[in-house]
Amino acid sequence: MCLIGFSINISTAPHGVKYFGTFWIVIGSYASVPGLVAWHGNNLAGQYKRGVGMVLQIGLGNFGGAFATLIYRSQDSPRYILGHGLEIMFVGIGLIFVPIAVFVYKRINAKRDAAERIALEREEKIQHSNQELRELGNRAPNFRYTL
């Protein structure tokens, strides 16, 4: 949705159409934030790692407001090609890397499922204490990434 909105706003469309494009930007960006924060938090094991990871995600995300003042310059008015172009690039990067992350998470989950299945077939009992599992975090054999 953001990509549609920024594409409309970078064009030479009339102001009313660009206003409509701005709604697409807002719908696409703000509506996705809670889901992305939750997804990121669910895929970090351990309270400290999760806490720091979410602080970094939210903090760096909010830094975008300061960044926007540098890329939306008054001399680029009325089309703001630099600002909208960079936003299109960032949205495009997200559209590339989210499917890659999903692919990698699925692959890691499948490997852990296979290792668990093999251990069950061989009737191996690998015991880890709760402390060991906490210390392993994302690398714990029973940890699965949320998709």
Automatic annotation (TrEMBL):
SUPFAM superfamilies noted in UniProt: MFS general substrate transporter (SSF103473)
Which molecular function terms from Gene Ontology are attached? Answer: transmembrane transporter activity
How does the protein's chain sit in the membrane according to the entry? Answer: Multi-pass membrane protein
Compartments, as annotated in UniProt: Membrane
Indicate the transmembrane segments per the record. 19-39, 51-72, 84-105
Please give an example of a GO cellular component term from this record: membrane
For this UniProt record, the keywords arranged alphabetically read as follows:
Membrane, Transmembrane, Transmembrane helix, Transport
* Origin: domain of life: Eukaryota
Major location (coarse): membrane
Identification of the protein by name:
Major facilitator superfamily (MFS) profile domain-containing protein
Q: Which organism is it from?
A: Rhizopogon vesiculosus
